[in-house]
Amino acid sequence: MNYHYPFDESWTKQEIIDVVNFFNLIEKAYESQVKRDDVLAAYHRFKSIVPSKGEEKTYFAAFEKASGYKSYPVVKQARNKEGKFVKMN
């Protein structure tokens, strides 16, 4: 991993940690698997920090550009999947 996670410098230290945790779970969904509930909880926290849909899309696009991983499909699978884990192909 030779890239930076997108965040706003005006956020608190805890908010930055929580957003980085969310993006870390996105990575893990592509590289191995993650618990569905962990993704949903991290996304809920992400949305409390970034409530605007437009801002969400901006952060998702910045993360995808840096990492190559798309965030929305992971969140969508976590919402729609019945199992305990999320794993992207």
What does this protein structure show overall?
With 89 residues, this protein is mainly α. α1 (13-31) packs antiparallel against α2 (36-49) and α2 crosses α4. The protein has one domain: BH2638-like (Annexin V, domain 1, Orthogonal Bundle). The longest helix is centred in the first third of the chain and has 19 residues, at 13-31. A two-stranded antiparallel ribbon has the order 1-2. The protein has 4 helices and 2 strands; from the N terminus they run αβαααβ. It starts with 12 loop residues before the first helix and ends with a strand. It comes from Virgibacillus siamensis.
List the SSEs and their pairings.
Blueprint: H1 13-31, E1 34-35, H2 36-49, H3 53-67, H4 72-80, E2 85-86
Antiparallel strand pairs: 1-2
The biggest beta sheet is recorded as:
2 strands, antiparallel
* Beta-strand proportion: under 5%
CATH superfamily: BH2638-like
Order of strands in the sheet with most strands: 1-2
Named CATH topology: Annexin V, domain 1
Q: Low-confidence stretches at least 5 residues in length (pLDDT < 50)?
A: none
Order of helices and strands: HEHHHE
Tell me roughly what share of residues is in helical segments. Answer: 55-70%
- Bulk shape: globular
Structural class: mainly alpha
> What is the CATH first-level class name?
Mainly Alpha
Rounded radius of gyration (Å): 12 Å
Q: How many domains make up the 3D coordinates?
A: 1
> Termini, distance in Å?
19 Å
Total DSSP helices: 4
The CATH architecture would be: Orthogonal Bundle
Overall residue-averaged pLDDT value: 95
Pfam families: UPF0223
InterPro entries: BH2638-like_sf, UPF0223
Protein name: UPF0223 family protein
